[in-house]
Every structure is written in structure tokens, then in C-alpha cells.
């Protein structure tokens, strides 16, 4: 399971986004198969693969079924989260937090007042103009 160890960071992202996956090594490739709720979360896994694994096209195959059609992702707020921290971790720039706030105005009145357990919608990178 050498490739599984090499791609543990991707499996960690899968776990963090709530993907239900099975893995196996076959023909020199790591195969990840399963389901993820949102395309946004699948894309976060691919972002991790492409950012950290230059030989990914030779080493991994991912087959994920997306179960919800919404273009955004969902994040359950944990202790220590802020909109700025989420924007930095997901989009690479904390200053993009207003995009998250705008999408969640139905439940947020102040971007500095989020609560543990809240489920926040996260806009796709195409909406926040992140390459």
C-alpha cells in the first residue's frame, strides 16, 4: 500500500469533506472510488492531488459520484473557524471571506459571528475568481 501512503493527504481531504471512498492498488495505480456530496468537495480532492503530486496522472485514478447538484460545498463550522481562515484554507486568500459571507446571508448577519455546528455554503472557485 505504498501509493496509499503517498496519497494519504488526499485521503485526509476526502475524510474532511465527508467523501465515502474505498481505495485499492491495481496495476501500479491507486484507485479511489466512492461518493461525495458536492462537486465542490470532489474538486477540493483534485486540487490536493494536482498541487502535491506531480506524477498523479501515472499514479492515481479517481472515480467519485456526486450526490447533490448544488455548485457550492458545505462546511460545518468547527471551533477556531473564521470566514477568513476558511477563505485562506480553501481559496488561498483570507481576503475572499466576503464571498462566503454573501452566500450565507440567509443565516449570517455579521461575518465575525459564526457558530460551531453551523453549516455554511462555500462558493465554487469559479465564483470567487480563483485560478
Question: Main traits of this protein?
Answer:
131 residues, three-stranded mixed beta sheet, 40% helix, two-stranded antiparallel sheet, 23% strand, alpha+beta
Draw up the topology in text.
Layout: H1 2-6, H2 8-16, E1 20-26, E2 29-36, H3 39-52, H4 56-59, E3 60-66, E4 73-76, H5 83-91, H6 97-103, E5 119-122, H7 125-128
Parallel strand pairs: 2-3
Antiparallel strand pairs: 1-2, 4-5
Query: What do the pLDDT scores average to?
Result: 91
Task: Summarize the biggest pleated sheet.
Answer: 3 strands, mixed
Q: Percentage of helical residues?
A: 25-40%
Backbone shape:
elongated
Strand order of the largest sheet: 1-2-3
Relative strand content: 15-25%
Label the structural class.
Answer: alpha+beta
Radius of gyration over C-alpha positions, nearest whole angstrom = 16 Å
- Number of distinct beta strands: 5
Distance from N terminus to C terminus (CA atoms, Å) equals 33 Å
> Can you tell me the residue ranges where pLDDT is under 50 for at least 5 consecutive residues?
none
Task: Provide a count of the helices.
Answer: 7
SSE string: HHEEHHEEHHEH
Report on the structure:
The protein has helices at 2-6, 8-16, 39-52, 56-59, 83-91, 97-103, 125-128; strands spanning 20-26, 29-36, 60-66, 73-76, 119-122. The protein is of the alpha+beta class and 131 residues long. It contains seven helices and five strands, in the order ααββααββααβα. Strand 1 and strand 2 (29-36) form a beta hairpin.
